[in-house]
Design brief:
By secondary structure, the protein is α/β, with parallel strands linked by helices. It folds into 2 domains: 153 residues, Ribosomal protein L4/L1 (Ribosomal Protein L4, Chain: A); 49 residues, no CATH class. It is built from 7 helices and 6 strands; from the N terminus they run E-E-H-H-H-E-H-E-H-E-H-E-H. Strands 2-1-3-6-4-5 form a 6-stranded mixed beta sheet. Strand 1 and strand 2 form a beta hairpin. The longest helix is centred in the middle third of the chain and has 17 residues.
């Protein structure tokens, strides 16, 4: 499978071969949904906590007589019915992450890459480097390509000037190859891979 390579100036820079096992799969929405759910669940901290009856500070003395008050027969003021009391069936600290086998996670990444290739939203970039860390220069390049929403994945080391220039660009994300994930790939319209990133991803997924 052939793909054109472009430069930041929107000029052609040859072609590359894309691995069929990574970019030529028929995308499965169920697999991508499982992976996105896995990622979003894993990022939840799960630190919300309510106080149970045993944790609320208060007296356990029976504050009203058993009969004759015309009210309910309450034993203490730490129950959920009273202000300042405990909460019934509230959230407690717990992990929200779900289990997903590594093979499934790797397969989901292949399907995400294949989905971008199938929809024509995959762009192969020669290199992601700038002489000066100027947002205006990168903004012009992004406008030339028509990237309204894009994720740019570079090799192991990201060019410092390119990284600084991309910080203030809205809807443009930048990640190293080791940070490539299904959620970030799908949340942006365009997926831009440098040649260095392409080699590392294919070595990782084949």
């Amino acid at each position: 499978m052939k793909a054109d390579v472009t430069t930041l100036d929107a000029k052609k820079a040859g072609t590359v071969d894309l691995a069929e096992g990574v970019f030529g799969l028929t995308p499965r929405s169920d697999l991508l949904h499982r992976m996105v759910s896995y990622q979003l669940a894993k990022r939840q901290q799960g630190t919300h906590q309510i106080k149970t009856r045993g944790e609320v500070v208060g007296s356990t003395k029976k504050f009203v007589r058993q009969k004759g008050s015309g009210g309910a027969r309450h034993g203490n003021r730490k129950v959920a019915q009273f202000r300042g009391g405990a909460k019934a069936f509230g959230p407690v600290q717990r992990p929200h992450d779900i289990k997903l086998p590594k093979k499934v996670r790797m397969l989901a990444l292949r399907h995400a890459l294949s989905a971008k290739q199938a929809s024509g939203d995959l762009v192969i970039l020669d290199e992601a480097k700038l002489k000066n860390a100027k947002t205006s220069a990168l903004a012009k390049a992004v406008q030339k390509h028509g990237w309204d929403s894009a994720l740019i994945i570079d090799g192991q080391n990201i060019d410092e000037n390119f990284e600084r220039a991309s910080i203030n660009l809205k809807h443009i994300d930048l990640l190293p190859t080791q940070g490539a994930n299904v959620y970030d790939i799908l949340r942006r319209q365009k997926l831009v891979l440098t040649k260095a990133a392409l080699e590392l991803l294919e070595a990782r997924l084949t």
